[in-house]
Amino acid sequence: MNAKSLGKNIQKYRLARGMTQDAAAEKSGLSTNYFRQIELGHKVPRLETFLKIADALDVSTDLLFTGNINRSPEIRGNELLEKMAGLTNQQKEYILDAVETLVNGMKKL
What we know:
Blueprint: H1 3-16, H2 21-28, H3 32-39, H4 47-57, H5 61-64, H6 73-84, H7 89-108
Helix pairs in contact: 2-3, 2-4
């Protein structure tokens, strides 16, 4: 596991939520110093702590691990679905039509 990459992902989602380190640490039940050490990549949290951080940031654990592990097609599909959540139904239809066309083309190969 790449602790620095994990820390950067935690920081990215914390900032995207408009949270300070203090607020994220408190919501995670951690000290601000320990939370800061995790974000800097100096510490790797235990699984229980990692789950608390993901919960506090309201983000899936697989997104926090992005860049730290090889992502399976299923995980990448889930990430895409999460990204599509903010789109209009019409935009989603365009994407789904494009994916369907690609899938049908791959089956012919």
